[in-house]
Amino acid sequence: MRVGRMLGTERDRPFGERLQAWIEDARAGDDAGLTSIWVPQIPGYLDALTAIAFMGTVTERIELATSVVP
User: For the purposes of burial, counting CB atoms within 10 Å of the CB of 5, is it exposed (0-12), middle (13-18) or buried (19 or more)?
Assistant: First the structure.
């Protein structure tokens, strides 16, 4: 069975704090054996490809994916 995680779209934290939390979530998911982490595209707030590029620096095998890329 493949198990992944979709990260949320809440905007209650500044972008930098959220990005850091997602990087930590990606590392934890990789360590826990999750198959994938999914990131949303939020126009005017978050570029999904930039976020997964940062996540890729701390993971080894987990798949990093975007839910929507315009």
Answer: middle
- Judge contact between 36 and 9, C-beta under 8 A: no
Residues 48 and 66: their CA atoms lie apart, in Å, by 6
pTM assigned to the model: 0.82
Helices 48-56 and 15-32 sit at what angle, rounded to 10 degrees? 50
Give me the percent of the chain exceeding a pLDDT of 70.
93
- Helix or strand holding residue 49 (H, E): helix 48-56
Going by their DSSP bridges, the two strands 4-6 and 63-66 should be labelled as unpaired
In angstroms, rounded to a whole number, what is the distance separating the alpha carbons of residues 51 and 63? 13
